[in-house]
Amino acid sequence: MTLEPAPDAIRVALVDDQQLVRAGFRMVIDSQPDLTVTLEAGDGAQAVRLLVDHPVDVVLMDVRMPELDGLSATARLTEAWHARLPADRQPRIIVLTTFDLDEYVMEAIRAGASGFLLKDAPPEEMLAAIRTVHRGDAVIAPSSTRRLIEHMAGALPAPAASDPGADPRIASLTEREREVLVLMARGRSNTEIGADLFVAEATVKTHVGRILAKLGARDRVQAVVTSYETGLVTPGS
């Protein structure tokens, strides 16, 4: 049964070249009162054309599609949104694939995705992923985040200055916010960060929100990438 979506429902776009797959996803998503499918696209090129100006919150993006693959479409969309929208209003993208490979996850993060999900994941996992990225978190286990980011670190440019504090993005953070960002980069969850710093998880969430705002980051994965780019965190530290 399809429920009438709430006025503030999360707006979802489906990008997949298989119509039956989109129909299945739409049926599951539209069954939730807090979610609604507002747009569909059959390939990456169409997705870019339609989504640059279309109001949407979360995009489910297939990897393998004709015309333009999902990773390339993700990169083009995130670049366009970055130029037009503040970080907290930029849509989040969850990349969908049938292959559980690190290379896809890393490429998805590089392209600007906030999540990575296997297409055969249970429906409840997909629904949770949409809600999670909409909150600003990433759909990648914290332990995997560190492993993947460290793989990426070798491809990132060297920090412009030897002192991370010289970077205005890092300089804008308080000492506690820097501590939280370092622990995020080490793959610690909010609960674990709270235990490490002897503060409540709600306090950690507040710090994370402020870090994302100050760094202009879409989510915590992008914030962790910034910590490596600026030299605040180095591989193996």
Summarize the structure.
By secondary structure, the chain is an alpha/beta fold. The protein has helices at residues 19-30, 44-51, 70-84, 102-111, 123-134, 142-153, 168-171, 175-185, 190-197, 201-215, 220-229; strands spanning 10-15, 35-41, 58-62, 92-97, 115-118.
Q: What this model shows, in words?
A:
This protein has 237 residues and is α/β, with parallel strands linked by helices. The chain has a five-stranded parallel beta sheet with strand order 2-1-3-4-5, with helices on both faces. Helix 3 links the parallel strand 3 and strand 4. Helix 2 runs parallel beside helix 3, helix 4 crosses helix 6 and helix 9 packs across helix 10. The model has no long low-confidence stretch (mean pLDDT 84). Keywords: DNA-binding, Phosphoprotein, Transcription, Transcription regulation.
What attributes does this structure have?
globular, 237 residues, 11 helices, alpha/beta, 5-stranded parallel sheet
Total number of helices? 11
Mean pLDDT: 84
Query: End-to-end distance, in Å?
Result: 51 Å
The sequence of SSEs as H and E is EHEHEHEHEHHHHHHH
SS-based class? alpha/beta
Strand content: 5-15%
Query: Major beta sheet, specifics?
Result: 5 strands, parallel
Using the CA coordinates, give the radius of gyration.
18 Å
Unreliably modeled segments: none
Helix content: 40-55%
Shape: globular
Number of DSSP-assigned strands: 5
Strands of the widest sheet, in order across it, are 2-1-3-4-5
